[in-house]
Design goal:
- By secondary structure, the protein is mostly helical.
- Helix content is 55%, strand content 0%.
- It has 12 helices and no strands.
- Helix 1 packs parallel to helix 3.
Length: 196
């Protein structure tokens, strides 16, 4: 029945959701996350507030990946009860936003929530490295101007943000990093390769 319930949630008809609940179907956090992913605001509110289903890390992840800023803000209001880091791969919500190219979400998380922009996931990537790898020039420009950013951070293989930009052919990102204070252009990875 789980698949049926998630389809009902994604479809967005609150009356169907209420009918299913009255008939004994029980909703879980996966249904809540589906409502977030498909921007079903009324259904997400119903499942969370009326049925008392709590948000989890994947609620945050779905909000970021689906550009559901309203849900993201609502979830972060309750973040005292939610881990902001995945227990499986050590990614945080800021890194997910960088991977997805969401500058406004990153600004919100950095400026309003003071999240650590230099935090590394399980393979050593920071949000700057992820933005560089994917060629998100607007994010690289924003992050490279922050005093607290480590523009020379290395992942588990010794790869730096500049290396990711050069390897990916992201010339705008390379330009923004070269303008950043303290960038080291001759840093090598574990194999001895430098980006320039």
């Amino acid at each position: 029945y789980a698949k049926l319930m998630r389809f009902a949630v994604a479809g967005g008809c609150k009356e169907i959701i209420e009918l299913l609940y009255e008939k004994g179907f029980r909703f879980d956090v996966r249904c809540l996350n589906t409502a977030i992913e498909f921007h079903q605001i009324k259904i997400a509110d119903y499942i969370h507030n009326t049925l008392q289903i709590n948000f989890d890390f994947y609620s945050l992840s779905k909000a970021v990946m689906s550009y559901n800023i309203r849900a993201l803000i609502e979830i972060l209001k309750e973040s005292n009860n939610i881990k902001l880091v995945s227990r499986f791969n050590n990614w945080d919500v800021l890194q997910i936003a960088a991977q997805a190219g969401q500058l406004e979400t990153i600004r919100f998380l950095v400026e309003e929530r003071q999240m650590d922009i230099n935090r590394q996931n399980s393979i050593g990537n920071t949000c700057l490295q992820l933005a560089c790898e994917n060629g998100f020039a607007d994010i690289v420009r924003y992050l490279a101007k922050l005093e607290s950013v480590d523009v020379n951070s290395k992942d588990v293989h010794g790869v730096t943000p500049l290396y990711w930009c050069v390897e990916g052919g992201h010339s705008d990102c390379v330009s923004f990093l070269l303008e950043a204070d303290g960038v080291k252009i001759n840093e090598t990875d574990e194999n001895g390769f430098a980006p320039l």
